[in-house]
Known about the structure:
Blueprint: H1 16-26, E1 31-37, E2 41-47, H2 48-64, E3 71-74, H3 79-92, E4 95-98, H4 110-119, E5 123-126, H5 132-142, E6 147-150, E7 172-177, E8 187-191, H6 192-206, E9 214-216, H7 223-236, E10 240-242, H8 245-250, H9 253-262, E11 266-269, H10 271-280, H11 283-286, E12 296-299, H12 306-315, E13 326-328, E14 330-331, E15 338-340, E16 350-353, E17 376-379, E18 389-393, E19 407-412, H13 424-431, E20 444-453, E21 456-462, E22 467-469, E23 472-474, H14 476-484, E24 490-502, E25 505-514, H15 525-546, E26 550-557, H16 571-579, E27 585-590, H17 605-608, H18 615-627, H19 647-661, H20 676-684, H21 706-711
Parallel strand pairs: 1-10, 3-4, 3-5, 5-6, 9-10, 11-12, 12-13, 25-26
Antiparallel strand pairs: 1-2, 7-8, 14-15, 16-17, 18-19, 19-20, 20-21, 22-23, 24-25, 26-27
Helix pairs in contact: 1-2, 2-3, 4-5, 6-7, 10-12, 14-15
Amino acid sequence: MSKATTISNEVAIATMVDVLRLRAETQRDEIAYRFLADGEEERSTLTYGELYNRARQVAAELQKQSAAGERALLLNSSEADYIVAFFGCLCAGVIAVPIYAPRLNKKGNARVESVVADAQPSVVLTAGPGSPAVRDMITASAGEHVRWIDTNALPVNGDQLWTPPAVSGTDIAFLQYTSGSTAAPKGVMVSHANILHNERMIRNAFDTKPGSVIVGWLPLFHDMGLIGNVLQPLYAGVPCILMSPVAFLQRPLRWLQAISRYQATTSGGPNFAYELCMRKIRPEYRSGLDLSSWRVAFNGAEPVRLETVNRFAAQFADCGFRREAFVPCYGLAEATLFVSGGLDPNGVTTVNHGVNGNSNNGGSGNGAKISQKQGKLLVACGRPPVEQAVRIVSPDSLRPCSAGDVGEIWISGPSVAQGYWRKAKETEETFNARIPGLDEGPFLRTGDLGFLKDDHLFITGRLKDLLIIRGQNYYPQDIELTVEQSHPVLQPGSGAAFSVEIEGEERLVIVQEVAVRKDPESIVQSDLDELDALIKLIARNIVAGHELQAFAIVLIRKGTIPKTSSGKIQRHACRDAFLNRELYVLREWQERKQLEPVLPKPSNPELDGHGPYGLASWVAQEISRTQGIDQERVDLNQPFAAYGLDSLAAIEFAHKLQAEFQVEVDVAEFFGDSTITEVIRRATKNTKSPVRKVEKEQPATYPLSYGQRALSGSAGCRQSRGLL
């Protein structure tokens, strides 16, 4: 039986170091974390006592290096080493900077270089010596003074040399860098007090208690993975089972198997994770799952879709999953993580939004209404906890919105972070907002739009992504949902709606992935006719659902739309790629423009014989797309590391190679010194003619929309022996 002590105001806890010490003293031999190799077999464990000892070893070395108050970059690859290094920083009074380990050279990933240049770490923690490519890149951005510490080569008695640091709750624990999808990454300064308050809210919202078991696969350098899957179980004194993101992405069944095997009570992820499970887990594999213990299936980080909630609950009901286990959440790094969400005895709460005047954007300060022909059901992200103030404010007048009106979400409370590292102006603008005439605040301006109804918080969109076309406001995610539901071959969560200026007027552009069955080079005129019909269908559905005409509709290849490392659509990057003609286009329509297919150009005849349309062409195109460089500049005689693939990008790259060509590449190959040609040749030497994996299409479950009824019976949009 666990001896977990519930942390309350009566327990002398001021920092996360105090929490770790408490767990080591009261639950020393209990397992805190279990680590699954490939998401299945148990590879290793960490007890509270072992974690405390190893963290103090790291801390003692950091103290020896006089690093207190400095920043330490975490580049450990395994989950166990990452956790040890993170707590080692906290125990030394060092500011941790979590980031992925991309194994880059000086031509490396711009985001990593931006983070390093901004954080200016004095120390880099790795589990191993680190590659020369990484050292060169870090040194170029941070300076020659940076010191490297191999956490696997520390003295075994190092913990005895550790001195408890003089750390208070207001001290910065770590810098959580934002995704950088619309601007350069910014380091959010998260204090120990911020963490403790946020963890207390999460514990209360999810009812985490002795007997709870958490399963997680989210990246530990993201706030949801770190705060939710590492620090929350430690704070509550309950065990956590961790697998890598790549294990989940490669086989989503592993996630649900872990929940079933360990009878987990709490686990979750973004909306796309549940969609992925529904698409990839076959009925015959569901029969062995027992999900009856799953009490909290949190869903956050991107819009929560009611259709996903309903379909997942129905599909896994026979496995014991209950719909009321779904817990939609809202949060952001600037508020540490959690803002609202929690168990609700009434289950998922929805509201019909967009009718009866309940859609003013910004209240009296901005009377433009969200254009919507019909209301739609929005999913509530719970009730904000009473100890954290949430206000809905007009982004124009900065006045409070009327009840039910849409405005910007402002937050005030102990979880709101201290600001952005070394960015005084942005900190003042974002973290120190005030409502005129009210003695409240300061408030954090989230940049997110939403409204409060019956004390529930509803998220409607992102202020910067809001489309304003002919004086009407449109949420891009609403249009994107209309598009993807037009036909089953359109990839869910893989479309972008944005506007471009055409002859002085903002016009709508749609970019959407299509799961085609044929290779681009084998597309014939009849296939193009099917894509043309699909474009017409999309256009009609947009008109029917939003009374809006598209200027351009671009159908692109599956897996090629720009996304962040956490899976969010990068609408601004999509817009740039559209304007710069950098999209992987299968078929495109624009007003007053003929439809023309854009196909990949062979870049290496030696490898083009491998696969239906050439591995070399595919690899060059994929590097060009993901790394934002011209395809002509991709040299296959260079290593993958020369083009700056981060760890998640490499995972996705390897997964696509396996899915598209049935070619398996070890993720470690992406960070080695072998050329791309050598890596691909080794991977294909046992496969004479790799072919793309053809996945069985699921039958359409979408109701016929206006556009589909109009085209029903047309050969252009039927799933048949053709392209789709």
